[in-house]
Write a structure and sequence with these properties.
single chain; 1300 residues; alpha+beta; 7 domains; six-stranded mixed sheet; disordered N terminus
């Protein structure tokens, strides 16, 4: 709620407009005399307790004005000054990303036609205020000019008048603002509209629209026409049809729309005006496909028009169902760019192409998942992102619709411009326009690149100083500029760390060579000199370089002197004097960085990116050459660009017939990484065989890149596109060679023809149609976890992920996890990575969690680790403890160990690189020597367990022999039981004071999080009602997620886990390729694994069914999949069923049963047993026996033996907990098996039974086991061995303590 008192009202801060909120809250605190805590300094004359109270009051006031999503991030701040600082770090941080975002908002700010001038100036001032908060300030005149340039076309006369009236005087923002506001007041007072009707589909507000239409058919008011007065006496009101005023000024009763528009009904091509307040949305009645509908019921954006889509990917993406049940195929997806009224582009991502659809739909749900906020009301809609208004529109009839007549044209222009922009290695827009005017860029009539994020990431630079021009040399090789760049942070594929450039001053052509060492510069120069002098017949006259040692060797000087080459050196410390080479290096790096980031290729491909950038720079316009192409000036031949392709795009290379069989695929999927050097053809990276190959027989797919390889494989789009682009290599000749390699010191990479690939299936991967028409509505997630550090920093939640990483680093530093040191020569540093997870809390909120994880797979046994085993608490142990808690009404608390693995002490010397994004400035060359264990290390779980076990032993706890993760400590009149599962702890006890003391000790030794009374453990919800004496263990939420995942949320329910008519065997698994292909798309193993977790935790009723379907994981059939879905449908009808432990006596009982030859393939029998404690199941099993039983007696006898082992374990465990159960009975419904167990007689019918099963006789003779008979109709273990009827299943469930 907002903070209100009298006339003071402060809206809750939800992450938007921090500067305005901060100003308000500071003013409010000053008004209430609570301002002193803002500084964080206590006045000298104030007592400490008064200061603490005052600080707490101010802190409470600020917290009351924070939204939940903001307050969650600062919950640990306990002082007012700390709270304000934390919020400033999050929302006022002067990071490059924030600055780029705010600068983009400022320069893209454009007042839309029909927008209030006051609102526009307010938004302008807000952006300026936010920029000042991140330390960016403009001069007053610059602010005034930006404000004038943001006005719409209808204000051109005002802008011209202002510009003319100032003359040479400096503009002032306040004067310009006052003048604009005065002009707006004058316009409204004289009856004029302050702006005209907009033709944008996203902002179509209009004021004073007349019934007379101009030539463009827009019905635009003529009140601003040339030679006319500012007040029109012939204006007709649409409401009362009288002359002299606008509709919004009409005082007559409002007429309905049907009467108002009646006179337009006869015009077939008329535009529909449907807003009651004359704000009309332009929408063609003849073309419903051109309009867009804002749809809250759509799971994603859809369109029937393929031509609107950019980055189009075709494929089978499943089906969608309309309201009448009609299915429509999704045949592709891509992006659509919409130009808004402000001139910016709004991009709709992942728009599905559905040809049979009649409307274009914009999904509100997808916009929300992408961080947009959509509001509806008063006949209008608006889409915002943060403080930025992305788009807005009006209501038409009963639908909120958008229409954009220029959308297709905008898309085509942007698509073609963007395509060539990427092919040319992110050339500037100015350069592309020059190339287009020369006809070099085919099919590109207009250049409009827009905002390229890859260019911002790759080319961001400081504002340059003014420089004087310099004339280039007339003759080739008269002056050559050279420079060495490096070392690179990572070695290239060929092992290079440097590159050297040679630039001819006359033609500005650049040559690039890659080096492993700087000492190779001289040998490279000699090779290059011979080559260029042979090509031109001219001699090199001057060589200009810096004072690097690679150019200063005596050998280099003697060579130049011998060949008459003048060496020009710059003054030390002044690289500006070698500006041509320095700027070329910067340009090469920027272009290479852009194309590599866009493609997603790893950093080891930096040399290939530099290679491609140099190739493209030689074929792009050069300013010193009056925009001629360096390659054309050097060679005298025309350069063609039709062969250019986007760096890093997917390519399909033809495999020669000699390297493949007749049934093998004819192409191999690779990635384009550059153009040929010494030989013809393109260069490609074969990611499968990890080698570089050359080819000219290739098909390109410029819509997919290296970074899309995982997503493309998952949806099955990694096939040749429908309209492939074939490579045309006639333009590439040996004269194009600009980048060389040599045998010593230069980039040397494997370029031999690919060897024969391993035999693989030639079937194309086809995405599955899935299992339900509603899948697309179910599998959409509302958040995505980043995969790496760079992705986390570039996303919308970068601030939250950064805070999570800082919290992790704080824990690591506080724990003394490592110390910085130099890496010993004989040691190797392990790498690490950040792992990001979104945790869903019990109250529905989300917690951003980042974890630093070591790449433990790089460790070697005996060097970096020895033992790695670490125990975890058994599920049976947890259920036994919960049963005791319910029976004796004990307290049950839960703790979580923060960074549990960090507490373990290491016994080996392990070194690790510094975490990405948190390198210590000035110490980048140092590594981390681990003092404590860290996540990802193979020995981390074991070291944590050893540390925790040592602490528990020193605290007086006894470790249970039956479960090493359960500890018990007995007091005079109470006891405490502690169970640990890695970093989750359950504490049960009768004395809350003793539990609190244990918590305090744990918190002193480990960083703990007290979760209070236990509510959830390992995905199982704990529902407790102490007044009724019940404790329930439920997986209802997990089951619903399971149904949602496999699209069975709306399926019909079943009454039993398996139908009695379902008989499964391996013979049902067909050998037909078609059926195998179908089943390969079915997530059979995933579904069975998910069912197993439910069965192991809380659902013994599905144990037999899950055991049956799990026998066919290697080769499932359609019948087996039907069985899995049957189990899921049964769970849907019984999702609320849970284990219910009750208050009362603790009594242990066991039930055993077996079938005979139930497995149709092996004829083995199934063992089933279940044990209850206090009437509720705590342990159960349904498993095939190891040998074939020859009779029912033998099968039952083996089952009793298996159950007896579990009985002994339970008795011993309960004894350690002080709950002895020596007389616990074990029931069986087989009288013959009972007789065989009690009478140690060996005869012909049982002499073959393995001896290990006869130990049960010794247990009975020693009185450790009590075997009793139970009727088969009352045995709850029956449901664990066979399919039972509904009535019998209900009895078994009740006996096992399951409640709905």
């Amino acid at each position: 709620m907002a903070l209100e008192e009298g006339k003071v009202k402060i809206e809750r801060f939800d992450g938007r407009d921090f500067s305005f909120w901060k100003m308000q809250i500071e003013d409010y605190l000053y008004q209430k005399k609570l301002y002193q805590p803002l500084s964080g300094k206590k006045p000298d004359d104030m007592k400490q307790e008064d200061w603490v109270l005052l600080d707490r009051q101010a802190l409470g006031v600020i917290r009351l004005t924070l939204a939940k999503n903001v307050a969650f991030n600062i919950v640990n701040e306990t002082t007012t000054a700390g709270l304000i600082k934390a919020l400033s770090d999050m929302y006022e941080k002067p990071s490059a990303a924030n600055k780029v975002y705010l600068m983009r908002r400022l320069f893209n700010l454009k007042m839309g036609e029909g927008i209030s001038i006051t609102n526009h100036i307010n938004e302008f001032n807000t952006i300026l205020s936010q920029l000042e908060s991140v330390q960016i300030k403009f001069e007053d005149e610059v602010k005034a000019l930006i404000l004038l340039s943001s006005l719409p076309d209808s204000w051109d006369a005002t802008v011209t008048a202002v510009s003319s009236s100032t003359g040479d005087n400096t503009l002032k923002l306040n004067d310009i603002r006052n003048l604009i506001l005065s002009e707006d007041v004058r316009r409204r007072a004289s009856g004029e509209s302050s702006s005209h009707v907009s033709n944008s589909a996203l902002n179509t507000e209009s004021r004073g629209r007349t019934t007379q239409k101009s030539q463009n058919g827009r019905g635009r008011s003529k009140s601003r026409g040339k030679g006319q007065t500012k007040f029109r006496s012939d204006i007709v009101c649409w409401n009362c049809d009288k002359i002299g005023h606008f509709t919004n000024q009409c005082k007559a009763p409002k007429k309905n729309k049907s009467h108002r528009n009646k006179k337009h009904d006869d015009d077939e091509s008329a535009n529909a005006a449907t807003d009651e307040f004359d704000d009309a949305l332009i929408c063609s009645l003849d073309s419903p496909v051109d309009s867009w509908v804002m749809d809250s019921g759509a799971s994603f954006h859809t369109t029937p028009c393929k031509e609107l889509l950019s980055n189009y990917v075709s494929g089978r993406f499943g089906k969608v169902y309309l309201a009448d049940g009609k299915p429509l195929d999704i045949v592709g997806r891509g992006n659509i760019d919409i130009r808004t009224s402000s001139g910016t582009l709004w991009t709709l991502h992942n728009v599905r192409h559905i040809p049979a659809l009649k409307r274009n739909l914009i999904s509100i749900g997808q916009l929300d998942s992408e961080g947009h906020y959509t509001t509806f009301g008063d006949g209008a809609w608006k889409v915002t992102k943060g403080n930025l208004v992305v788009a807005r529109g009006k209501k038409q009839g009963s639908l909120y619709m958008v229409a954009d007549e220029d959308m297709i044209a905008v898309t085509e222009v942007v698509n073609n411009s963007s395509l060539w922009h990427q092919r040319l290695g992110h050339m500037s827009e100015k350069g592309m326009k020059l190339m287009a005017t020369k006809g070099k860029l085919s099919n590109l009539k207009h250049v409009d690149v827009g905002v390229c994020e890859h260019c911002i990431f790759g080319k961001q630079k400081k504002v340059s100083f003014s420089r004087t021009g310099k004339n280039s040399k007339v003759e080739k090789l008269e002056l050559v500029h050279t420079d060495v760049w490096g070392p690179a942070p990572v070695k290239s594929i060929g092992g290079s760390c440097y590159y050297i450039t040679f630039i001819d001053d006359s033609t500005r052509k650049v040559w690039v060579y890659f080096l492993k060492n700087k000492s190779d510069v001289f040998s490279v120069f000699k090779r290059w000199k011979v080559e260029v002098e042979n090509q031109t017949g001219l001699k090199i006259k001057s060589l200009k370089s810096d004072n690097g040692g690679e150019y200063d060797s005596q050998e280099f000087k003697d060579f130049c002197s011998e060949h008459g080459i003048r060496m020009i050196k710059t003054i030390p410390g002044t690289p500006e004097q070698n500006g041509v080479a320095e700027r070329m290096n910067r340009t090469l790096n920027e272009r290479a960085r852009c194309i590599r980031i866009q493609s997603g290729l790893p950093k080891v491909f930096w040399a290939e990116a530099i290679n491609t950038a140099a190739y493209l720079i030689n074929r792009g316009p050069s300013v010193p050459l009056n925009y001629q192409l360096p390659e054309e000036v050097w060679s005298g031949k025309e350069v063609k660009l039709s062969h250019l392709r986007i760096f890093g795009c997917v390519s399909y290379i033809l495999i020669d017939s000699c390297n493949r069989d007749k049934l093998d695929p004819k192409a191999r999927k690779c990635y384009f990484i550059g153009y040929g050097s010494d030989m013809y053809g393109y260069r490609f990276w074969d990611d499968q065989n990890k080698k570089i190959i050359r080819s000219r027989n290739v098909t390109f797919n410029e819509n997919l890149f290296y970074k899309d390889r995982l997503s493309a494989e998952s949806v099955g789009v990694s096939k040749v596109p429908e309209l492939p682009e074939k490579a045309t290599l006639e333009e590439i000749s040996e004269s194009d060679i600009a980048i060389k390699s040599q045998n010593t010191g230069i980039e040397v990479e494997s370029e031999s023809e690919p060897s024969t690939p391993p035999r693989r299936s030639s079937r194309m991967s086809v995405p599955p149609d899935r299992y339900s028409p509603s899948l697309h509505y179910l599998l959409l997630t509302d958040a995505v976890e980043p995969e790496c550090f760079s992705e986390a920093m570039q996303g919308n939640d970068s601030i939250k992920w950064e805070l999570a990483m800082k919290d992790e680093m704080t824990s690591l530093e506080k724990n003394g996890t490592w110390s910085l040191t130099k890496l010993p020569k004989e040691k190797k540093a392990l790498h690490n990575r950040w792992v990001y997870r979104l945790k869903e809390e019990s109250d529905g909120s989300r917690r951003y969690k980042a974890r630093l994880v070591v790449k433990g797979f790089q460790q070697k046994q005996g060097i970096d680790f020895t033992e790695i085993f670490s125990p975890v608490v058994k599920m049976t142990t947890i259920r036994v403890i919960l049963s005791i808690v319910a029976a004796e009404n004990l307290h049950l608390e839960q703790l979580d160990v923060k960074t549990a693995f960090l507490h373990g002490d290491l016994e080996e010397d392990i070194y690790m690189t510094q975490p990405e994004g948190f390198e210590v400035p000035g110490k980048e060359n140092l590594v981390c020597k681990l003092n404590k264990s860290l996540y990802g290390l193979k020995q981390a779980p074991r070291q944590w367990y050893k540390k925790f076990n040592e602490f528990m032993s020193n605290s007086g706890f006894n470790r249970c022999n039956m479960d090493h993760c359960c500890y018990v400590k007995k007091y005079a009149n109470s006891y405490i039981i502690l169970a640990v599962y890695v970093d989750d702890m359950l504490i049960a006890g009768s004395n809350m004071a003793e539990i609190n003391r244990l918590k305090q000790k744990l918190a002193e030794n480990f960083e703990m999080k007290d979760l209070g009374p236990a509510k959830q453990i390992l995905g199982m919800r704990i529902l407790r009602n102490r007044s009724e004496g019940t404790l329930k263990l439920s997986q209802e939420k997990y089951i619903h997620k399971l149904l949602d995942r496999f699209s069975l949320e709306d399926a019909k329910t079943r009454n039993t886990p398996l139908g009695s008519h379902l008989k499964f065997s391996k013979s049902q698994s067909s050998q037909i390729d078609e059926e195998k292909c179908y089943m390969s798309k079915v997530p059979y193993a995933s579904a069975v694994g998910s069912l197993m977790y439910a069965m192991v935790c809380t659902r013994p009723d599905i144990a037999h069914a899950v055991g049956v379907v799990s026998r066919f994981l290697s080769n499932p059939a359609k019948e087996h999949w039907e069985g899995v879905k049957w189990i899921l449908r049964y769970l849907k009808g019984t999702s609320e069923m849970c284990l219910c432990f009750r208050k009362g006596n603790i009594s242990l009982q066991g039930f055993s049963d077996a079938d005979l030859g139930g497995d149709l393939d092996t004829r083995k029998s199934t063992t089933g047993y279940i044990f209850t404690l206090g009437g509720t199941a705590v342990s159960w099993k349904s498993k095939l026996q190891h040998s074939v039983a020859l009779s029912t007696t033998e099968a039952e006898y083996i089952a009793i033996s298996e159950a007896a082992k579990e009985m002994i374990w339970l008795q011993n465990f309960l004894k350690e907990l002080g709950k002895e159960q020596d007389d616990a009975p074990l029931f069986s419904d087989s009288q013959s098996a009972l007789s065989l167990a009690k009478n140690p007689v060996f005869h012909s019918r049982c002499k073959h039974i393995q001896l290990k099963y006869h130990f049960i006789r010794e247990l009975i003779n020693d009185g450790e086991l009590s075997l009793l008979k139970i009727s088969g109709s009352e045995n709850p273990a029956d449901m664990l061995t066979k399919t039972v009827t509904t009535d019998k299943l209900r009895l078994c469930i009740t006996s096992a303590g399951l409640r709905g």
